[in-house]
Amino acid sequence: xxxxxxxxxxxxxxxxxxxxxxxxxxxxxxxxxxxxxxxxxxxxxxxxxxxxxxxxxxxxxxxxxxxxxxxxxxxxxxxxxxxxxxxxxxxxxxxxxxxxxxxxxxxxxxxxxxxxxxxxxxxxxxxxxxxxxxxxxxxxxxxxxxxxxxxxxxxxxxxxxxxxxxxxxxxxxxxxxxxxxxxxxxxxxxxxxxxxxxxxxxxxxxxxxxxxxxxxxxxxxxxxxxxxxxxxxxxxxxxxxxxxxxxxxxxxxxxxxxxxxxxxxxxxxxxxxxxxxxxxxxxxxxxxxxxxxxxxxxxxxxxxxxxxxxxxxxxxxxxxxxxxxxxxxxxxxxxxxxxxxxxxxxxxxxxxxxxxxxxxxxxxxxxxxxxx
Length: 372
Prior knowledge:
- The protein has helices at 11-17, 20-30, 32-49, 51-54, 157-193, 195-210, 213-222, 230-260, 264-271, 276-287, 289-313, 324-328, 334-339, 345-367; strands spanning 75-77, 83-96, 103-114, 116-126, 130-138.
- It is α+β, with helices and mostly antiparallel strands.
- It folds into two domains: 37-47 and 161-367, MetI-like fold; 64-150, no CATH class.
- The protein starts with 10 loop residues before the first helix and ends in a 5-residue tail after the last helix.
């Protein structure tokens, strides 16, 4: 029998033989900033979800001996000039300023603590139900190593920041999920049916977009009962952000459906007996799904900033929940920032996460048009 010879396909021909999603994936991988942003986001989410393991101590642990301590310095060379392969830190000693009575912490060169990886420390429940006591790195001696310093209650800011990443980043994801559902459904109904439904939905959108954001958030947040626990308030904040943020996506979906609802493939689906909901969900929305993905990606940092702003103003998440906005609330005054600048460190993670999402969004925007 004759064997069929496989025809060699050139790189250019292979590109045109790929599916739309394969082309998008290929072009996204070529976007260096987008790939860098994706890696950063993966690291942030991993650290956030497993924050108990990466934290150096319990996020609620207080110490009267470590109030407003500056970030601990890591050393490889000791006071005698000897180099150490493993990093170490010095102990701390406290003095009081005789004039201001302010506590001043300095390094105690007579006391040295070795840093270890995978050491036993404070007990925790990973993801809320897996018991453990192994931490990624730190010292076996408690309350001596504070990478980001401590706050006015003697709590470790590094450990609290790791825990805050999980709350703030998931708030963005959950909020965008509700925004995507509301925007797609209401925008789809408005654009596909038109008429009275379109008029009512558009008037609602215009009403919500015309209202000032902060007073609206304050009014909705004030409606929370005082008896609600932290978890209930957490989900309430995500719903509030969704109720405010779905309007722009709904208008975009409406415009796309007005453009596509009379196309041949939609008419063919109607003739075949497809229902309106099937046509919207399986034909119209997938036809511009690449844009929806980009929109959702760029909406997540907006949600993160909104949660941070609400919590910073005191009308969002409140203690004992730890979010980036709750941590930044401690640095509201100029005097606090000037005396304890490390209180602003959680804000760096807000900037990093927002920039990373924007990089990924830019990459997806370029990848959405792979032939360009």
